[in-house]
Amino acid sequence: MNDPTIMQMFADVGAIISDSHFVYSSGRHSSVYINKDALYLHTQAIATLCQMMARPFNADQIDVVVGPVLGGIVLSQWVAHFLNANRSSGETLAIYAEKEEDGPDKKFLLRRGYDKYISGRNVLVVEDVLTTGGSACSVIELVRMHGGNVVGLSALCNRGGVQPQDVGDVAIHTLITVTLETFTETACPFCQQHIPINIELGKGRAFLAKQKEL
Fold first, then answer.
1. pTM above 0.85?
2. H or E stretch including 177?
3. Which residues, 6 or more positions from 121, have their beta carbon under 8 angstroms from its beta carbon?
4. Can you tell me whether residue 8 is helix, strand or coil?
5. Where does residue 104 rank: exposed (0-12), middle (13-18), buried (19+ CB within 10 A)?
6. Domains defined for the chain, CATH in brackets
7. What is the DSSP letter of 15?
8. Cβ–Cβ contacts within 10 Å for residue 27, how many?
9. Which of 3, 68, 102, 132 lies 20 to 30 Å from 54 when distance is taken between CA atoms?
10. Model confidence over 122-156: pLDDT tens digits?
């Protein structure tokens, strides 16, 4: 069960929005949206949440924290900060993975020499919202490709029912789990009721633009 205090923190900054008509990146529709970007506006909130993300892990056993751009940059910094506060010696580093600019798959890469800090080290992967687990899984595969040992995945929210087998059999720790009812476009009751699509959050604007092209 979700901690009511954590749920309230999400609600207080507008990170959980309901009673609208959203389109997700997957193309599915829903009335609820997890607005992770709202969290990053509030440094005290994100710091507190990252402290909770770091708490289940032995700080002395984490050498590097890595997350996918963009939100993972903030998360890796804060989580590493709180791990360092509990280390008996040494330092936990914070790095991030970037998506390649070209290529059909736009895979994640380690640039800026960050790959040198992975081989033979224990790595904690962080993510904000897990929907399919695709980004987190890509980062996990990237770390392993560079010889790193992934000790866990820590996320703010699991909204897609992502399981360890979805992310390379890595143990998952999330602060909250939100079960969202989603629909295909053809089965969407909000479309059938002609409820306007939210174009400020999610992929609503792109969805409508594509509809005009058809």
1. yes
2. strand 172-177
3. 63, 64, 148, 149
4. helix
5. exposed
6. 4-213 (3.40.50.2020)
7. -
8. 12
9. 132
10. 999 999 999 889 999 999 999 999 999 999 999 99
